[in-house]
Amino acid sequence: MADTERYRATFELVDTDGDGHISIDELKNLMAALGTEVSSTRAVEVVVAADADRDGKISLEEFAALMERTAHLA
User: Ranges for the EF-hand domain (predicted)?
Assistant: First the structure.
């Protein structure tokens, strides 16, 4: 299990509406702020890949797990 506290601050920056989840739109906004435009299709693909409970959003736990997986790819 990923260490959620390690990723909490970043998660909270991305979760702009403060609802405790990262939506597709919040993910797209993050990528745009980082200088990389992503299509809606690609954003949906990322959310689906990270969304373990299939609620259509990324929770802190799912975000931490995603970050752990992608850190090993770098």
Answer: 2-37, 38-73
